[in-house]
Amino acid sequence: MNLIEITDLIEHKIEQNPNKIVFSFFEMKIKLGLSDSVIEATIDLIATRLTNIGYKVHKTGETYIFQDNKYIVETNELLVGIK
Q1: Per-residue b/e over 42-66, b at no fewer than 16 CB within 10 Å?
Q2: How far apart are alpha carbons 79 and 60 in whole angstroms?
Q3: Residue 59 pairs with which residues in a beta bridge?
Q4: Structure confidence at residue 12 (pLDDT)
Q5: Tell me: the pLDDT tens digits for 22-45?
Q6: Residues in the chain with pLDDT < 70?
Q7: Ordered strands of the 20-24 beta sheet
Q8: 1-7 — which CB contacts under 8 Å span 24+ positions?
Q9: What does the DSSP 8-state code read for residue 54?
């Protein structure tokens, strides 16, 4: 994925829900057809972009608080961004 595609993907997610953004393994691997190495690089770029625009980024296995509830980023989720 190039930076324009990544930016478009992030903007689409923000339009859907600006408070919580989730990138799943299914979405990246099946829907977008990315290889494992491309997924890893793309998730790193997404994390950087989300951090730069004020999101707290959490990856698989990490815990986070959203709307006063504690969650764990599930194994099928690669990244969660919380505003």
Answers
A1: bbebbbebbeeeebebbeeeeebee
A2: 6
A3: 79
A4: 96
A5: 999 999 999 999 999 999 999 999
A6: none
A7: 20-24, 77-82, 56-59
A8: 1/32, 1/34, 1/38, 1/42, 3/45, 6/42, 6/45, 6/46, 6/49, 7/49
A9: T
Q: What is the pLDDT of residue 1?
A: 84
Please give the mean pLDDT across all residues of the chain.
Answer: 96
Buried b (16+ CB within 10 A) or exposed e, 69-82: eebebeeebbbbbb
Measured CA angle at 31 (ends 30, 34), to 5 deg: 60
Task: Give pTM, 2 decimals.
Answer: 0.91
CB 64 within 8 A of CB 73: yes
Q: Which has the closest alpha carbon to 80: 54, 57, 47?
A: 57
Helices (H), 2-65: 3-16, 25-26, 36-52
